[in-house]
Amino acid sequence: MSSALAIAGVSAVLQFYLRNLYTPLTALFGGMVNVSAKAPDIVQEAFTAGSPENQVNLFLHQVTHNVGWRNQDLPSVGPDGSTRLSNPALALDLHYLLTAYGSEDWQAEALLGFALQMLHENPVLTRHDISHATSQLPVNDPGNPLSTPLGAVGLADQIEMLKITPSKLGREEMAWLWTALKADYRPTFPFQVSVVLIEPRNPTVAALPVLVRQITVEPDLSPFPNIVAVIPPGGQATAALGDTVTVTGSHLLNATGVVLNNSRRSIQQTLPLLSPAANQSLQFQPPDLNAPGELAAGMYDLSVQVSTASGPTPTNSLPFVIRPSIDTWAPGGPIASGNTTVTVPCSPYLQPGQDAYLVIGHQRAAVDAFTTPTNSPSFTYTDLRPTGGLVRARIQVDGIESRVVDRSTPVPSFTGPQVQVV
């Protein structure tokens, strides 16, 4: 595969062979033909300021994804969303403009004709062609700092060869392009080079081969343990640390623990059961440690570990949410309006990188920056307005909100701390 210098390498290879094409034609054109790879406005400025000469310019005006290669490779990360399994190649098509500048009548057309003949007769750049061109760059361009690194670009070693095909640009597209380039139109041939494969060099994980495959065949799925619901207490959709949570399902009699996984925060913990599981239900409790290492608020995948004849077997997983809670909060009187900072005791501990907001009534402020786990975050309001009375306060962490509705009664009611802004 090619490195990130592959795009520059393609331009350098094409420029090398165009130079070789015009070298024996100096007598025909009355002097050397300059071959450049710059933006047309730069070429035009230099061409008009200097003495008349013959020049061919190669300009890369667009880079697009190659649709055939874009989705060929395997996924780059594992199911946890963080373990890198492979480095899919970045497949690109390069779109060029080949422009001829002549100092005399017919010279621009002649220059363009020789270049088109070369591209027509060499529609595929072979590995030898690419290797030869890149090895000669330090000799041909000793003053260019990229001439040596481009020799190790890897273009000659990628799976696909470089194929040159003509492109069709309509009059409107061509007019728009040259207008955007702020240069006068000159005889131009648009073409495409495909495909350039750039492979990242990120470290990946490679598993060892499987030594023994143990496959158990059952006549149906009914004997397998599974879970169907996760039920926090009080009719809530979320649970706080210390709450007793019930999990229902089937064939859970030999359950040994509950596994919580939060791939976003790289958290995975196995929690013990509060009591031996029944066949269709079990209970556990997210521990309230009141310490920085406790479970963070957020969304988890919950599964149950069950001991079976074939070994420990996990059930299917269901979503489970640990909500933040505002601990006993006594601001010591009304909160001053205007530019003010409010500190709130909460659980679980906020972890660095978590998004947190404090909502007073309907006024919301983001958490102040912090670098270590904290259970007393501060929130700065730039313009906190008076509330005219007591209003509910709640905290939001990673999109999960603290409890503000009590659903344990037939008629739900608001709950949580109340504060006043004056």
Question: What's a concise summary of this model?
Answer:
With 422 residues, the chain is of the alpha+beta class. The chain is built from six helices and 25 strands. A hairpin with a 2-residue loop joins β18 (356-360) and β19.
What does this structure look like?
The chain is an alpha+beta fold. It has three domains: 6-198, no CATH class; 226-322, Immunoglobulins (Immunoglobulin-like); 325-419, Sandwich (Immunoglobulin-like). The chain has six helices and 25 strands. It has helices at residues 6-22, 26-29, 40-49, 107-121, 127-140, 171-181; strands spanning 33-36, 54-65, 90-101, 124-125, 162-166, 188-198, 226-231, 245-250, 255-262, 267-271, 281-284, 298-308, 311-314, 318-322, 325-326, 338-343, 346-347, 356-360, 363-366, 378-384, 391-397, 400-401, 405-406, 413-414, 418-419. A six-stranded mixed β-sheet has the order 1-2-3-6-5-4, sandwiched between helices. Strands 9, 10, 12, 13 and 14 form a five-stranded antiparallel β-sheet that branches. Strand 9 (255-262) and strand 10 (267-271) form a beta hairpin. Helix 1 (6-22) packs across helix 5 (127-140). The longest helix has 17 residues, at 6-22. The radius of gyration is 34 Å and the shape is elongated. The two termini are 65 Å apart.
Helical fraction: 10-25%
Major sheet attributes? 6 strands, mixed
What is the number of independent domains? 3
Structural class: alpha+beta
Taking Cα atoms only, what radius of gyration do you get, to the nearest Å?
A: 34 Å
Distance between the termini: 65 Å
- Could you report the average pLDDT, rounded to the nearest whole number? 89
User: Percent of residues in beta strands?
Assistant: 25-35%
Discrete helix count: 6
Number of strands: 25
Could you say which overall geometry the principal axes of the C-alpha atoms support?
elongated
Walk across the major sheet and give the strand order. Answer: 1-2-3-6-5-4
Query: Stretches where pLDDT falls below 50 for ≥5 residues?
Result: none
